[in-house]
Queue: 4 jobs
Job 1
Amino acid sequence: MSKMVTANENKADSNLLDFIKLHYRSFQSILILVVMVVLMTILSPYFLQVRNLLNVVRQISLIAIIGMGVTMCIITTGIDLSSGSIVALAGVVAASFGQANDPILLAIIAGLAAGAAAGFLNGFISAFGQIPPFIATLGMMIGARGLALIYSDGRPITGLNSTFEFIGGGYIWGVPVPIYIMLLVAVVSHILLKKTRFGKHVYAIGGNRQAAVVSGINVKRNLVLVYSYAGMLSALSGIILAARLSAGQPTAGEGYELDAIAASVIGGTSFSGGIGTIPGVIIGALIMGVLNNGLVLLSVSPYMQMVVKGSIIVLAVLMDKWTNR
């Protein structure tokens, strides 16, 4: 009897350890977020105001949406450097179809199609052309920005439909519309990664690509799908941004790819592949949002803010390396 009890206790301890190992990165990110919120609350009396908190979440919504697609790329041991440029390209395309008397649905479909096409090219070149994702998406980063400038003739596209503008600047029950969109995308992306065969294949490719091939997984097809989805999410952020700015800006989205990668890594996604979650991306984006907002409230110079943000990204990568050891 005592041996059976001991065996059950050992099994329970083992399950607890496995659970901690599995969710260690998430716990780590949540702890950092909580500490930052407490610190900002102590340092600034304005931080916990409802308007300020909603502003923080609205600001990070675009980065979080992009980050969900980037996370899938990183899980497969890839990367996407073209997100910011796709934001601009999709924004000007959607704006051109979202003029005063145009149907809003057409503008959304056109913008998403532009982003999905760019993402498809990223995945196709990387998977079938055997070109590293870093190079493939770097080329798209430059090319998509150029296309955005050509398409708009280097000028903002204005005169948008008021319904279209509601996507980026509207409120529902006092909450900004981009927050609802972010939550919807998060649910869909989480289901894709955790509840579908596609998601299992994504993790398998990142865990061991050769083993995935031997297991019968069509690696190339899945990589194309991953990058197409990432491109579409970047395009969605571009549409929201254009709606909020009331114009399609060909220079919009600069640096968004780096913020999205930072949010993903801070949220626990590993550059080694096979590890990453959608809730982790949102937590990572919130950490960056709280940091940016807190530094502004404390009147820290914009130049110092860049130094702090860069340091945190480096520390996140170092922690990732240390954890993998």
Note: The CA atoms of residues 270 and 320 lie 6 Å apart.
Job 2
Amino acid sequence: MITDAETNYLFLANCLPKKQNAFYNRFERVLNDCKINFGLLPNTKDIWAVDYMPIQLDVNKFVQFDYSPDYLKSKKWSKSITNVSNVCKEINIRPVKSSVIIDCGNVAKGKDNVIMCDKVFKENKHIKEKELINNLTELFEVEKIIFIPSDEDDIFGHADGMVRFVDNDTVLINDYSKEKTSLKRTIRLSLHNAGLEYIEVPYNPYDNKKALDAKGIYLNYLQMKGVIVVPAFEMKEDDEVVKLFENVFKGQTIKSIESKEIAAEGGILNCITWNIKK
């Protein structure tokens, strides 16, 4: 599987400049400063590109899942679902298609392993758990899939705001010291059983007025080859996170960008980006 750290080209939804113009202008400057090559995905209906676009396994190999999450079942939100097949056709990508229901923000990608929240089982009740696990392991072409509990307050059930790979042996996780003991214990146990070490990252969404707001969740960063862009929220944790990342990802360029307006919509940097290796 292609990891984020190996990617060298970035796509953003073409509706992002219109829906979040001020943020897009700031982000464009950061991407240019970091010398990140990027383009816009055509015919998109929402800005959360990582959720509906395929997973890249190799330079010319992609897997496209069924993007029909339960939180978009209403008529109001179903109209916001992008036709991924049309987008892929426009950018000359021919993915292998799977009928498994996954929004790919729930896929934390390692080289040989994948971490997902257990919401994938809820979304695919029509498939037996063992069959689903075997199916996903084959589709992702990894040795194993590690499942962690979904955060009860997160309607999306996405792993990308809870855990990210540093390398094959180590992950970053949120500092859940203020969360329920059961959540902390189960996540740590899942990682321990998988043989993974973890590093805690500051986490402070506690003053957010809406449950949807992702402000204070720093794990939803953009990672590409040699570069990491972390969200900032005008909070005291902003500087702490940058210093931590500079220590963890030595030799890489670490940038930050004010992200409060997109966080208020329910996602941050990993959510709006689809980065691949060309």
Note: The chain has a mean pLDDT of 94.
Job 3
Amino acid sequence: MYGLVGRTVRIIETDADVEEGAAWLAALDPRFAVVLEQTGQLPLRRRENGFGALMNTVVGQQVSKASALAIWKRVKAVGLDIQANVVAASELDLQSVGLSQSKVRCSKALAGSLLNYSGLYHMTDDNVIKELCKIVGIGTWTAEVYALASLGRQDVFPHGDLALQEASRALFELDVRPDEKQMRMMAVEWSPWRAVAARLLWAYYSSMKNKKGNF
């Protein structure tokens, strides 16, 4: 639990928290219960808070999981997961580890920002998203993923995530993949456990890929 202005927010910290949310969702919609039978226990999906974690999320923008992992390995190998090192690095240094020009600009903007990482814990979900999106190159998806994984927010959902959109299309038997606006409308029903709904849909997406033999 963290105290916010005027209220206390629930933080997902343990597997038991995820299980509680998953049980709530399964009771809400039997299709979620079916997914849980297929996937088993959902991952906690928690990361550390701070510059390195947010930089990692930036690296994961608009690339496959495998590509993000490969690039992040190179980033860490040369110490570019440390804020002071990114401040000192040239654009060529950042490009050499596989960052696109837009991610180079974002990384430099992030490293040069005065973002108070500890202060984010005491903001509302909406204000966390707004604060992060002030930084050049950080959009709603990056801010929502960071709030979910690094801050452990219970009710944050990355509505623009393509995997979540595709999993929702399949699970709810939609004719077309929902866009970000449609996902926001769908996810309202899953509050206050939208972050666990995201974990569940990511697990379902992975299950779909594995069944197709596409790892």
Note: The chain has a mean pLDDT of 93.
Job 4
Amino acid sequence: MIILFNKPYGVLCQFRPVAGRKTLKDFITQPGVHAAGRLDADSEGLLVLTDEGREQHRITDPQHKLPKTYYVQVEGEPDEAALEQLRNGVILNDGMTRPALAARVAEPGWLWPRDPPVRFRKNFPTSWITLVLREGKNRQVRRMTAAVGYPTLRLIRHQIGAWTLKNLDPGMHVKL
């Protein structure tokens, strides 16, 4: 079984309760499923859960190179040189990232308001990029955009392989 879940901002990717914090247990009641990968509490979007160990491994193992697509709001307006750095791979403290697909895009029309809202500063414009990764280092997208000079303000995973958020509102899930 596969469950697609639109993880809201602030939710922890675990079923074990944590005092004062929302976890997957607050949204997913299906017993025996586990998250195939993680999103940090500050990130939003698609999380795939499954009760099949092989499927979980296939989704998370970088050897399978399953693409993961992110919409990223960054501080500033990345130029072509910064995007090219992301495309070629970025040196992080735990090594070089694999090459990524990176492009500037308009703010997604399907985007929901975030609670709490992203901080805005009048003198610093923001913009949106898409990143497609085929690996999953800890907080990788945030570290990559910061490394090229454009810190992440909002991070939404939209797609894993062929699975997308579709029309799932934050906190909603669908069983496949």
Note: The chain has three helices and eleven strands.
